[in-house]
Design a protein that fits this description.
The protein is an alpha+beta fold and 575 residues long. It is 37% helix and 14% strand. The chain has 19 helices and 18 strands. Helix 4 runs antiparallel to helix 5 and helix 15 packs parallel to helix 19.
Length: 575
C-alpha cells in the first residue's frame, strides 16, 4: 500500500516542477513578445533595449534591405535607412511582373517596418531626416548622369522630342529615343516621361528632388514632379543608329527676302549634307538647308512651307554657282519639330460634346494624333486602351463624359449611343484597308501584323462577313441619328492634310496658328503607324468577299450623296 502512495507523491512532485518550468517559459516568451511589440509603437522616450545596442548596419543586414554595396560604407546614416524603407515599401496597387522578383520584405506591413526603422535609426544615431533618399541613377545606362534639373510645362528645360511610356519607361529606352534623333541630352520626369534636347541650364537642383523610380526599371532614378533626371547620351544601339537618317525633302525656291528668314546658318568650304544636318540637329532645328557652301537651319513657315518643290536639276549646279542661285536643297533632320508638342486638358468643361467616330481600323488613332497636336488639347475615348495611354494619349484614362477633352473617340453605333453627342467628326476609310488594319490589330496589336496562319484560318472569312456589315451600318447610323456631322475621308486627310485638318479644327471651334499647323504637317506620322509592308503576299480578299464589300460600298456612297455630301472617294468606289 505504501509503494503506490509513494509513487503518486513522486509523480505529483515532478508535475509541480514541470508546471513551474512551463510557467517560467511562458512568462519569458510573453516578455520577449511584449518587448518585440514595443517596436511597433510610435517613437518616444524609452530606455535603451537590447536591440538598440546592435549596430545599425547589422540590424539592416539582418532584415535583408540593404545591398552589400551600401554596407561597405564606413557609416550607414538614418537617412539611408529611411530612404530604403520608403523605396521598398509595397505600392498601393500590385505591380506587374513575376512575383519572384519582388522583395520578400515588401510583403511586410509598411507601417510596422517604417516605425521599426524610426525606432532603431533614431535611437542609435539621432532623429531621422524628413525626406527619403532618391533612387540612384541607373548604373547600366550608356550615358553619363548629369544631374537633377527643374522643369515646367510652360518652360521646358529640354525642348526637343517628347516621349511617354507610363508602364515600361527605362533610362536606356529614353537614351536610345533621344540619340536616334541626334540629341545630346535625355531627361526623364515623373518616372514615365522622356524629354530630349541639346541645351541645359547652368544651375541644377538638389539631387534628392529627383526621387521617382522609372516605371520599367526598379531602383533607377527617373526624375520627379517637375524635376528632370538628365543623362548625356554617349553610346547608341545599332538599331537606333540605323533609324537616325536624314530625309531629302526636295529642291525649293528661296523665300522672297532670301536667307534672312532662316534663324541660324553656317558657311564653310566643302559643306556636306551630313555636316549641315549635324549642325542643325545640334541647334534643334528640323530642317537643314544647303545652298552651295552655305548651310541654314529653319522651321517650316508660311513663307517657306515646302509645298512648291521645283525640278531637282535647279539644285544640281556647282556649289560656287548655286550660292548665287535662288534655289536650295532641303533635308529633314532627325530632330522633331517641337512647336506643336505641348498638350493639356481643356481649362473649363466643354459645352459641346463632340465625338470622333469611326469604324475600327479607319485611322482614328492617327486622327487623334493630328487633332491633339493641332489644337494643343487631349482627346478622350469611350474605351480605355492601356497601350495608347502608355504612349502619351493621356485623355485615354479620363472619363469619356468629363468634357475635359476636345473630342471623344468612339466606334459605337446605334441611336442611343449617337444621340449622347452634340456633334461628331465621322471618319470614313476604304473598307478593304480598314478590315485589314483591324484584323492586324486584333491579331498583333497596334503596330504589328497578323501572321500568315491567321489569314489562312477560318477566322479571316468570318471576320470579313461580320465586320464588313458593321462598316456599312456604322456610317448609315451616324448619318441617320447624328445631330451635326463633319464627314472626313481618311484618303483626303492623307492626300490633303492641311486643308482637311483646318476644316476639322474649325469644326471643333479652336483657333490655330499657321505655324502650328505646319508643325503638325512636319510631324504628321506620329508613333502609331505600322512600318513596312504586310508580310503576307497573296491577296486576302476572295471574289465572294469583294462582291459582298462592293455592295456595302455602293450603299454607303448613295447614302452620303442623299445626305448632301460628295459620296465616297472615287478611288475605291466600284464602277
Amino acid at each position: 500500500m505504501a509503494k503506490p502512495l509513494f509513487r503518486l507523491q513522486k509523480l505529483l512532485l515532478r508535475t509541480q516542477f514541470l508546471l513551474f518550468f512551463l510557467t517560467a517559459a511562458y512568462l519569458m516568451t510573453g516578455s520577449l513578445l511584449l518587448q518585440r511589440a514595443r517596436v511597433a509603437l510610435p517613437p518616444g522616450p524609452r530606455a535603451p533595449g537590447p536591440l538598440q545596442a546592435l549596430p545599425v548596419a547589422a540590424v539592416a543586414l539582418g532584415v535583408g534591405l540593404l545591398d552589400s554595396g551600401a554596407l561597405q560604407a564606413p557609416r550607414v546614416s538614418p537617412e539611408l535607412l529611411l530612404g530604403v524603407d520608403v523605396l521598398r515599401r509595397p505600392p498601393a496597387r500590385p505591380r506587374p511582373g513575376p512575383r519572384g522578383l519582388r522583395s520578400r520584405n515588401s510583403e511586410l506591413p509598411p507601417l510596422r517596418r517604417r516605425r521599426w526603422f524610426h525606432h532603431l535609426a533614431g535611437d542609435a544615431q539621432g532623429p531621422p531626416a524628413p525626406g527619403p533618399e532618391a533612387p540612384r541613377p541607373a548604373a547600366s545606362s550608356r550615358g553619363t548622369y548629369v544631374g537633377c534639373f527643374s522643369d515646367s510645362g510652360h518652360d521646358r528645360t529640354l525642348r526637343g522630342t517628347v516621349f511617354f511610356d507610363l508602364r515600361k519607361m527605362t533610362v536606356s529606352h529614353c537614351q536610345d529615343a533621344c540619340a536616334e534623333r541626334s540629341y545630346v541630352y535625355a531627361g526623364l520626369e515623373a518616372g514615365a516621361e522622356c524629354y530630349c534636347g541639346n541645351r541645359l541650364p547652368v544651375r541644377s537642383v538638389r539631387p534628392e528632388a529627383c526621387n521617382h523610380e522609372c516605371k520599367g526599371e526598379k531602383g533607377s532614378v527617373c526624375g520627379g514632379v517637375g524635376r528632370l533626371s538628365v543623362y548625356r547620351v554617349e553610346d547608341l544601339q545599332l538599331s537606333s543608329r540605323k533609324r537616325r537618317t536624314v530625309t531629302y525633302r526636295g529642291c525649293f525656291r528661296l523665300p522672297e527676302n532670301g536667307t534672312h528668314t532662316f534663324p541660324d546658318s553656317l558657311t564653310q568650304a566643302n559643306a556636306t549634307v551630313d555636316a549641315c544636318s549635324g549642325f542643325c540637329s545640334q541647334k534643334e532645328f528640323p530642317l537643314a538647308i544647303l545652298r552651295g557652301w552655305e548651310c541654314y537651319c529653319a522651321y517650316p513657315t508660311p513663307q517657306f512651307s515646302l509645298r512648291d518643290a521645283v525640278d531637282n536639276s535647279l539644285c544640281g549646279q556647282e556649289p560656287e554657282a548655286q550660292s548665287l542661285a535662288q534655289y536650295c536643297e532641303v533635308y529633314q533632320t532627325p530632330v522633331q519639330d517641337t512647336r506643336c508638342t505641348d498638350r493639356r486638358f481643356l481649362p473649363t468643361k466643354s459645352k459641346v460634346f463632340v465625338a470622333l467616330s469611326s469604324f475600327p481600323g479607319a485611322g482614328n488613332t492617327w486622327a487623334r494624333h493630328l487633332i491633339e497636336h493641332a489644337t494643343g488639347f487631349y482627346t478622350g475615348s469611350y474605351y480605355f486602351d492601356g497601350t495608347l495611354y502608355n504612349k502619351g494619349f493621356k485623355g485615354e484614362k479620363d472619363h469619356w463624359r468629363s468634357r475635359r477633352t476636345i473630342c471623344v473617340k468612339t466606334h459605337e453605333s446605334g441611336q442611343r449611343e449617337i444621340e449622347m453627342f452634340d456633334s461628331a467628326i465621322l471618319l470614313i476609310r476604304n473598307p478593304y484597308r480598314s478590315l485589314v488594319a483591324e484584323f492586324n490589330r486584333k491579331c498583333a496589336g497596334h503596330l504589328g501584323y497578323a501572321a500568315d496562319r491567321n489569314w489562312k484560318s477560318k477566322e479571316w472569312p468570318d471576320f470579313v462577313r461580320s465586320y464588313a456589315a458593321w462598316w456599312s451600318s456604322h456610317v448609315l447610323d451616324w448619318l441617320r441619328y447624328g445631330k451635326r456631322l463633319l464627314v472626313v475621308h481618311y484618303e483626303e486627310l492623307r492626300h490633303s492634310l492641311l486643308p482637311t485638318l483646318r476644316e476639322m479644327v474649325a469644326f471643333l471651334n479652336v483657333s490655330v496658328s499657321e505655324e502650328r499647323l505646319l508643325c503638325v504637317e512636319n510631324n504628321k506620322e506620329g508613333s502609331f503607324r505600322r512600318r513596312g509592308r504586310r508580310p503576307h503576299g497573296p491577296e486576302p480578299f476572295t471574289p465572294e468577299m469583294r462582291a459582298l464589300i462592293d455592295g456595302y460600298i455602293r450603299t454607303v456612297d448613295k447614302a452620303l450623296r442623299d445626305h448632301g455630301g460628295t459620296g465616297l472617294p472615287g478611288e475605291y468606289v466600284p464602277r
